[in-house]
Amino acid sequence: MTESLERRIADRALSYVIDPPSGVDPVIEFSSPGELQALFGDVVSLGFDAESGQHDDDALVGAVDLVIKHSVHTSHPRFVNQNFAGPDPVSVVGDWLGAALNTTGATFEAAPVFTLMESAVLSKLGRVAGYVAEGADPLPTLPPGLFCPGGSTATLYALQLARHRIRPDIRRTGATGEQFTLFVSDAGHYSASKSAALLGLGTDAVIKVESDELGAMLPSALDDAIAASLDAGHVPFAIIGTAGTTVTSAFDDLNALADIAEARDMWLHVDGCYGGSALFSPTERHRLAGVERSDSFVWNLHKMMGMTQQCTALLVREPEQLESCFALKADYLFQPDKLYAEYDAGDRTFQCARRIDVLKLWLAWKHHGDLGFAARIDHAVARAEQTRDRIAASAGEFVEVTGTFTNVVFLWVPPALRPLGSLSELAAETHKALHELAPRIKAQMQTNGTAMVGFQPIGGLNTFRLLYMNPAVTEADVDAMLDRIREYGLAATNA
Amino acid sequence: MTESLERRIADRALSYVIDPPSGVDPVIEFSSPGELQALFGDVVSLGFDAESGQHDDDALVGAVDLVIKHSVHTSHPRFVNQNFAGPDPVSVVGDWLGAALNTTGATFEAAPVFTLMESAVLSKLGRVAGYVAEGADPLPTLPPGLFCPGGSTATLYALQLARHRIRPDIRRTGATGEQFTLFVSDAGHYSASKSAALLGLGTDAVIKVESDELGAMLPSALDDAIAASLDAGHVPFAIIGTAGTTVTSAFDDLNALADIAEARDMWLHVDGCYGGSALFSPTERHRLAGVERSDSFVWNLHKMMGMTQQCTALLVREPEQLESCFALKADYLFQPDKLYAEYDAGDRTFQCARRIDVLKLWLAWKHHGDLGFAARIDHAVARAEQTRDRIAASAGEFVEVTGTFTNVVFLWVPPALRPLGSLSELAAETHKALHELAPRIKAQMQTNGTAMVGFQPIGGLNTFRLLYMNPAVTEADVDAMLDRIREYGLAATNA
User: What is the DSSP letter of B400?
Assistant: First the structure.
C-alpha cells in the first residue's frame, strides 16, 4: 500500500529535524529566482495557472524535496546569519503538535490546556525577569503578560500601553495633536519607528539617543534628550531600553534607564528580543540588571532559545492594564456566561484568533530544564569568545570592530592593506575596497553554500558579523567560517 | 533502541492528523482548570518551580498524551464552534515542514523558495479576487499584497495604508488632531475598533452603520453617515465592507460600497476574513461582487479553507504603496547590495521576522486544485442548507433567527413555550428562560464532549449558531447536533 501524501511529507520533515544538514553539507544550495522557477517547473510549477489543477502525490513529494534542498538550513552549524538559528528539535515537534491540534489561544473554551500553559510559562518568565516574586502563583488567572506574533508587534503593544497610561482617553477620542516623544538608542531596533508610525505618533516622535562605541545608550544623553524634548513643549512618555542590539548585542544600562524613567514618570519598555534570554544564564544575566524595574519587556524565545518562529512573550508589570488598554468586550466572542471565562486572554490583546505558540516552549523547558536553557546561552558566549581570541591572534588579518556578548563584528583585511591602521583614518580608496569586499565574500559563501554569515555597514563600512546562538556551531566551525572568509577574500582581491 | 523524544512526539502528532477523533469520540474531554492541574501534576506539572528540572522522555510523552486528550478536537465532525475548524491535513504537514526549516519570510536571502511561493500565491489570490488581470505575471517581484499574522493585523495595516494615502505626512509627523472617521457595519468585526484605538484614531472614529436584518450594511445609511460626518467637520477616510460577518455570515453589497467610496474619494477595505473564500466557488462567488474595486482585502485562509492558524493574506490594489507606507530601509537588515534583494518583502510590512505561512497554502492548493477548493465551500453551504431545511420542518421546535451562507442562527424552544410567536414580542420571562437556556445546553455539550456549538446574543437573546466549514461534518452529524441540543434542552427544562 502506498503511503499517504501527509505521511510522506511528514516523514521528510521529521528526518530533516532529527538529522539536519551539517558538516560538509551545504548550508544553502543557492539558486537564482529563475533557476528555482525552472527546477520547480520540472515537477510542480511555482506559479499558478488561471485554472490550477490537482497534482499527484509523487509530484508534490518531488516539490517538497526541492523545497528542502533549496531552503536555507538554519540549523546547519555554519548558519550564523541572523539572530535566530538552530531550532530546538523538541520545540519543532511541539510546534507540530500545536499545529495538528489547530486551535486558537483566545479562550479557555477553545484551548483549555494551552491557556493554562500560557499562564505557567508567563508566570515563570515573569519570575526569571523579576517581574513577579518567587512564590507567586505558578498558574495565575491573569498572567504577567501575553504572547505576540513577533517582537515588533510586542513593542507596538507596549507603546500603546505606555500612551494609554498617560492619556487613557486617546484610545477612545484619538490623538489630539499633542506631540509625544519616545526615546531609544541610535543602535536600537527599527520597530520603535515602525510602531510610532502605526500608532499615529509619527516617526519624528522617536528620539534616537547617542550610544557608546559598543552600542549601549548613554544615560546622560538620554536625560539631556528628554530635557530638550520638554523644553520644546513635547510630552516624553516612553523610553525603550535595548537588551541586545541587532548588530553588536549591546545592553543598555537598565538601572540607569529605570532611574530616569522613574524620575521623569515615563514608561520603560525593554526590547530584549535578542538578549533577554541572557537571563537564563547565571553568568550572563547581570547584563539585564534592572529589567525588573521596567514596565514592559519583550523577549523573543525564537531567537537565542531556538523556539521555532514565532515565540514572543511580552511581559507587563501591571497586567491589569492590558484589559483597560485593549478590551472591547465583543459579546459575540467573549461571553462571560461560558465556563471558566475568567481565564480568557483574547480580549486582553489586540489579536483575535492566535496560533498556539506556547506548547513548544513549555515542552522544551520541561525537557531541558533551567540548566539546559543556561547551557545554550553559555555555549553561544563561548563561541563568541573563541572568535575574538582567534581574531586577536590573527596578527591583523582579521580586525575586530565592535560587538559584545554573542556578537563579533569584524573585517577581513586583504594582505595588501595590512596593517590596516585606525579605522577612523582609512584612506578613501581603502575604505571603498573594504566596503565592497564584504558583499562579494558573502555572495561567494552563499553561492558555494559553505556558510551564511551576515554583514552590515558600521559607519558606512560593510563589516562581517558572527553572532552565535546556534548550538550546532563547534570550535571547528568557527575556524572554518573564518577560513572561508579568508579564502574568498583572497580570491576576490587577487582577481 | 528507544526512539527519540522528537520521534515519539512527532508520531503522536502525525497519528492525530491522519486519524483524528471522530464519530463517537468526544469532541472535548472537558476538565476544569483544577482538574487539568491535577492530571498533569501526576505526570509533568503544568506550572514551573523556582528551579525547573529536566523531565525524562516517558514523562514528557505522558504529558503530550494529556495535551492531546484534553484539547479541543477542531477537526472532529461535531466541532462547529467558531469560524475555523477541520484543518486540512496537507496544510498541517506543510506547516510542519515550514517549522522544520524555521526561517523568516522577510528576505530572499533567508527564504528563497518561500519568497517565490508568496509571490505565486498572492498573485493567484489577486487574480481570484480580480485585483490582478488573468495573464498577469504569476511570479511578480512585487506581489499584490502580503501575509500577516491574522485578520485583525491585516485590517490594522489596511487602515494605516488608507490614512497614509490621504495624509502621507502623518507617518512622520504623527496625528495632528484632525478627526478622521471610518465606517463599518454594526455587524462588522471588532478589529475595526481595536485597530482605530491602536492607530491613534480612537474608537470614536469608528462609525457603526446600520445593517439589514441579515447583518449586511445598508448603503444608504452609509452614505448618510458619511454626509453627517462631513457636516460635523470630520474627515471620512475609509469604509470597511464585510464579506461574511462573524455571527450571520452576511455580505455587504461591495459594489454599492465601492460606488460610495469612489464618489467620496475614500479607501475601501474589505474584511473577507471569513467569507473571502466564497470566491473559490463558482456558485458562491457572486456574494463578493465588487471586491475587485476595493483598495485592500483581507482573507483568512485559516478559516474556511482549513489552513492551520495562521494564514492571512492582505491583498492591496496598489502594492507600491506598501513601501511608501511601511519601509524604513534599516541598512543593517535590508542591504540592497545582497543578491536578489529586489524580492525582499521585509520592509514592505510592519513585522520584521515572519513565520512561513505560505508553504502550507501552496501545497494544499497544488494538491486540491481550484476544484478541490470550490468543493470545500460548496460542502459547507450544503450543510447549512440542510440545517435550515431541518429547522423549517421541525414544526416550531427549532426557530431560525437569522443567518445566511454557511451560518444558521436559531433557537431551540422548550415544549412549554411552543409555538413561540414573534421574537420581537416575547414576554419578559420567556425571553429570560430562552436566554439562560443556551449557556446551560452549551455547558452540557462541553462537559459531555458530544459537540461544540457556539452561541451568542442576538438582540439580547442567546441563540445557537451552527456555522460550517469543517469538511468532516456529514448530514448525520448535523442531525446529531440538533438532537443533542434537544436532549440537553429537555433535561434542562424538566429539571
Answer: E
Q: Is the pTM of this model over 0.95?
A: yes
Rounded CA-CA distance B438/B289 in Å is 36
Q: Is B28 exposed, middle or buried (0-12, 13-18, 19+ CB in 10 A)?
A: buried
Q: Is 0.90 exceeded by the ipTM?
A: yes
Query: If we measure between CA atoms, which residue out of A65, A32, A62 comes closest to residue A44?
Result: A62
Q: How far is A255 from chain B (nearest CA, A)?
A: 24
Selected residue of A72, A102, A326 to mutate for chain B interface (largest B Cβ count, 10 A): A102
Judge whether B455 and B442 are in contact, CB under 8 Å.
Answer: yes
Radius of gyration of chain B (CA): 24
Q: Strands (DSSP E) along B173-323, which ranges?
A: 180-185, 206-209, 235-242, 267-271, 296-300, 312-316
Residue ranges in chain A whose pLDDT is less than 70: 1, 331-336, 495
pLDDT by residue (tens digit) across B163-188? 999 999 999 999 999 999 999 999 99
CA distances from B48 to A34, A117, A340, A359, B71 (A): 50, 10, 22, 14, 21
For residue range B15-65, list pLDDT tens digits in order: 999 999 998 899 999 999 999 999 999 999 999 999 999 999 999 999 999
pLDDT of residue A2: 76
Grouping H, G, I as helix, E, B as strand and the rest as coil, residue A142 is: coil
Whether A72 contacts chain B with CB within 8 A: yes
Contacts of B302 in chain A (CB under 8 A): 353
Chain B interface includes A193 (CB < 8 A):
yes
**Best mutation target, B6, B119, B323, to test chain A (most A CBs within 10 A):** B6
| Closest chain B residue to the Cα of A456, Cα to Cα | B332
- Least CB-CB distance to A33: which of B10, B116, B173? B116
Domains of chain B (ranges plus CATH)? Answer: 5-73 (no CATH), 104-355 (3.40.640.10), 369-494 (3.90.1150.170)
